[in-house]
Amino acid sequence: MLFLSHLDLNDYSLHVPDAFLKKFSPSVEKLSFNPFQNDEHLAVKINSCRSSVRFSLHEALTPSFLVKAFHSNVIARASENSPAADAHYIIAPLRNTSPIFQGKKYLSIRTADCLAVVFVFENAEYFIGAIAHAGWKGLTQGIIQNTIERLIVEANALGISKSNLLNELHIHIAPAIFGVSYECGSDVATAFQQHFSSLTSKYNNAISYLDLYNLLTNIQQDPSLLDVVQSNLFKNQHSILIPGKIFPDLQLLAALEGYISGIPSENIEILRENTYSHPCLFSYREASHKKTNASHRQWTHLCFPSI
Question: What's the CA gap between 60 and 56, in Å, rounded?
């Protein structure tokens, strides 16, 4: 597993629970550029792939395939008419991508504090890509499971086995609000508990990660992060640590779910930057706390390969 960041880690800590570090031993790579500058040469390369990810602020890059996200578990095939869905995917034979790409360059998702999760499979014949919008509602309703399962079905129709797809499927997890900045109520806790029951019914190995999953749904349980959570509550929200609140880390939960689903840990990378108090990115939660403009967003784009 790989953590990426262009920020100074002395000023912008990764805030990862010790149990997650112990399980995955992720490496950390410092990006030499700011990926949020509007320059096509500043795309973030997905580890071991030809594919890359670009970001833009406020407006999507053009020309892009878009969706109308509504915090669901719906995935759709990429389409000119921007379907209502929280994930979309595209499959193109590398010998002739023009009819599939339709002149587009990107598969795109708009977010604020929620995740954009990018999925890429490449072999000598096909490019398979998807991108999902995953806040706590999408995660707990199964948007990541649904996306992976759809890609398995579509790949199988091309003669690509499930094991081949999963072994070569790569995930890039875009910036989101960190758990230390993200307080949620008991309804969210219940949703995560119910979602784990769904995971255990589909994946035999899931139960082995119950303790880690529970920790990631409420990272204040990590002694090294509790003081950070309390400090942020007082500093940012003028609040107190009320029993029943949880602090889920959506990025790490998405990474764990991808791993439980069968994707090798070395195929998972996280742009580990917190939208809350980020020098470039927008946070809906931060804007609501500070009573500033809450209408801004950022975009994550999976770049199509140039053939």
Answer: 6
- Does this model's pTM top 0.85? My answer is yes
Of 259, 163, 166, nearest in space to 209 by CA: 259
Strand ranges, E, within the chain: 2-5, 27-30, 44-45, 52-57, 64-65, 75-77, 87-93, 106-111, 115-122, 126-134, 170-173, 268-271, 298-303
pLDDT of residue 39: 84
With helix as H, strand as E and coil as C, how does 193-206 read? HHHHHHHHHHCCCH
Is residue 115 predicted with pLDDT exceeding 70? yes
State the distance between the two ends of the chain, measured CA to CA, in whole angstroms.
29
- Which two structure tokens, joined as six digits, stand for 143? 């948007």
Q: Is the pLDDT of residue 240 over 70?
A: no
Within a 13 Å sphere around the CA of 302, how many CA atoms are in the beta-carbon half? 33
E strand segments, 123-256: 126-134, 170-173
The stretch 98-118 carries a mean pLDDT of 95
Least confident of 80-89, 279-288, 290-299: 290-299
Q: Does the CA dihedral 137-101-94-108 come out positive or negative?
A: negative
Distance (Å, whole) CA 179 – CA 247? 5
Write out pLDDT tens, residues 47-58: 999 999 999 999
At residue 60, φ and ψ (nearest 5 deg) are -70, 150
Q: What are phi and psi of 4, to 5 degrees?
A: -115, 150
Pairing of strands 87-93, 52-57: unpaired
Check if the beta carbon of residue 44 is closer than 8 Å to that of residue 35: yes
CA distance 196 to 139: 10
CA geometry: angle 207, 212, 217, nearest 5 deg: 110
> Could you tell me if 139 and 195 are in contact, meaning their C-beta atoms sit under 8 angstroms apart?
yes
φ and ψ at residue 146, rounded to 5 degrees: -60, -40
- Per DSSP, the three-state class of 22 is helix
